[in-house]
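User: quick one, sequence for these tokens?
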């Protein structure tokens, strides 16, 4: 019941005004619309409702409260003692009420609009994240089903585990090399090559090959062997049993198995296997090679999705700070806000020094410490970001001047110094810093934060 009443804006306004009128008429016995009280209760009611519900309520509350104020004032004034109601003494309250309520309502309305936009962005990112999680879950289910079919002996389990692990990479060149290694172990052959199919389909270009052999860097489609042409045309695995080869055809190197790799329906790679031991040249192995090809295609798709997702990600999960890309994008918004509303804006750079001879793991540990100290010291509306250099951090302080930032910096430096971390030549690892504060003479982001971009 209380929630419904709180959501009914008009009822709250009417109830508030009615209560003030009744108190004025019956309890205070005609106090001339609270002329003796400062600030006036009608003004307080209008400002509170404007700050909660925005600009529309501001206009409505100003109109209703001003009307109630003037009516009660009219009913209690003795016009024989005063010349007119339209005197600044009486009109100052509704005038100030209108100005203050509209300004506060406009600020509240902008905040509500910004929150709505942020909610939409968060919902969109959540949907994208759920989509990737579902894709990854589907990939895990496919791996699980394949394990159940192939696991029969301990050596098979170990071999399958190694192959599954190698196909979890997100780097395309690594996946291609791991695919060749998997075929080498399964078919007991080492003469395999993978070609990248050109978009026009006029030629193929070398992408990966087994060690110890040299293959042409590029082959025209017209020069391909019949088996490879069949695989490209039919978009499915082809073996020497599927293609009739002319006995008089002079072929120095004969392809025994050709596997096209389709990525989201597009033909992108061609795998050619030149040598297979006689006992391994069986239909079950053909199906296994085809299965590995499909598995590789799925891994390539997920790898590309991963890289696409990471390119759009702005959050560093390990350090719990924003990426440098976020800083470059967001500093424009903060600059325009400061310039438009004449608000203070400060950007702080904090960097490590005396870490040149330290290992990457130790430097990363120190970076996590600095990020933790900054996170404990800054406000919730400040942004901690990666710097342009690997050992730098940038902090954006909206609506905060350089005096306050220097106090925060001093606190962080003192706490870091107490840790006593050692770096180059047994020197203590320290923090170096500089900051820039916006002023009205800075007309562009480059003038303001050019050294940080």
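Assistant:
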């Amino acid at each position: 019941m209380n929630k419904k009443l709180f959501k009914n804006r008009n009822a709250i306004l009417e109830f508030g005004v009615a209560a003030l009128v009744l108190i004025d008429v019956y309890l205070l016995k005609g106090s001339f619309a609270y002329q003796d009280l400062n600030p006036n209760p009608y003004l307080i009611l209008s400002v509170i409702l404007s700050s909660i519900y925005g600009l529309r309520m501001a206009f409505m509350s100003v109109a209703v409260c001003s009307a109630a104020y003037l009516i009660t004032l009219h009913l209690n004034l003795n016009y024989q003692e005063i010349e007119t109601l339209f005197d600044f003494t009486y009109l100052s309250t509704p005038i100030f009420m209108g100005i203050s309520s509209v300004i506060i309502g406009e600020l509240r309305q902008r905040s509500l609009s910004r929150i709505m936009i942020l909610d939409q962005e968060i919902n969109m990112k959540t949907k994208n994240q759920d989509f990737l999680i579902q894709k990854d879950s589907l990939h895990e289910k496919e791996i699980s089903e394949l394990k159940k079919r192939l696991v029969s002996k301990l050596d098979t389990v170990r071999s399958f585990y190694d192959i599954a692990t190698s196909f979890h990479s997100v780097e395309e060149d690594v996946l291609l090399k791991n695919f060749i290694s998997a075929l080498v172990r399964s078919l007991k052959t080492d003469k395999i090559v993978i070609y990248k199919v050109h978009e026009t389909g006029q030629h193929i270009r070398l992408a990966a090959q087994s060690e110890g052999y040299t293959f042409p860097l590029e082959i025209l489609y017209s020069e391909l062997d019949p088996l490879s042409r069949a695989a490209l045309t039919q978009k499915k695995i082809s073996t020497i049993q599927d293609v009739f080869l002319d006995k008089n055809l002079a072929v120095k190197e004969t392809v025994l198995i050709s596997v096209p790799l389709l990525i989201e329906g597009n033909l992108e790679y061609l795998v050619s296997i030149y040598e297979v031991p006689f006992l391994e040249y069986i239909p079950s192995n053909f199906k296994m090679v085809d299965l590995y090809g499909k598995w590789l295609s799925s891994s390539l798709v997920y790898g590309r999705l991963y890289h696409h997702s990471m390119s759009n990600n702005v959050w560093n999960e390990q350090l719990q700070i924003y990426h440098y890309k976020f800083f470059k994008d967001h500093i424009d918004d903060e600059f325009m806000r400061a310039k438009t509303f004449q608000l203070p804006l400060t950007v702080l750079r904090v960097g490590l020094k005396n870490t040149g001879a330290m290992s990457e793991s130790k430097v990363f540990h120190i970076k996590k410490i600095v990020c933790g100290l900054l996170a404990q010291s800054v406000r919730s509306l400040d942004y901690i970001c990666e710097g342009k250099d690997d050992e730098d951090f940038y902090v954006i302080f909206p609506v905060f001047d350089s005096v306050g930032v220097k106090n925060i910096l001093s606190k962080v430096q003192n706490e870091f110094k107490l840790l006593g971390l050692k770096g180059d030549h047994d020197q203590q690892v320290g923090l170096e810093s500089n900051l820039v504060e916006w002023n009205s003479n800075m007309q562009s982001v480059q003038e303001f934060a050019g050294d940080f971009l």
